[in-house]
Amino acid sequence: MVRLKKLSHKIFHYFGFDVIRYTNNNFYSLQRESVIRNRKINLILDVGANEGDYASEAREAGYRGRIISFEPLSSSFNILRKNSGKDPLWSCENMAVGSLDGDMEINVAGRTTSSSLLPMLPLHTTICPESAYISKEKVRVTRIDSLAGKLFKPEDKILLKADVQGYEKQVLQGSERIMDSVQAIELELSFLPLYEGAPLAYEMLDKLKSYGFIPAGFSRVLADPATESLLQVDGLFVRI
Known about the structure:
- By secondary structure, the chain is of the alpha/beta class.
- 29% of the residues lie in helices and 29% in strands.
- It contains 8 helices and 10 strands.
- A hairpin with a 6-residue loop joins strand 9 (213-223) and strand 10 (230-239).
- The protein is globular, with a radius of gyration of 19 Å.
């Protein structure tokens, strides 16, 4: 049986595939599902929603609670609003999220998911030329704390997800008043500078620890094909 198993794996590997158990340890998406279920999450704050892929994946995975998606780019928001239109528990806000309330200019990238309130560094465009900035757009920025009481309640159990291209620290700083309600946090983390002024993963891990969160899982996002160095991961964190 063992020899047969090894032979099967060799055959699959030859054709570029593998067969592994569909468990939390092997699949990041299942880790997230488990956290949502075990932490009794009833509200997902989807910061940097783009066109709504994250929220749609949560629905496909069986999550039935409320979702509030935040997306500043007008083009992406229009698609997001259409994608959420038939879901009464999925609402959308056309704004960026940060540590201050006000107006800012966002840099619009050729690949909209790379758009950021921060300047992009050369390493990013070297690896992903299609992510180069092509324009700017004036957007409204708000703190999550400014929305407390309007969009959610203290008793809500929140998963705070932020995929905002280097602006994750500011999102956390603007959410400190509601942090006691946050049971899980999901962030994009960088190991080398891709956006000017953005903190690296090591600093963010310390920041999350100070809020009382430890890692639950990581998923590879971006690597440098020339050096094989890992540049970005998605990280899932849970309250201790």
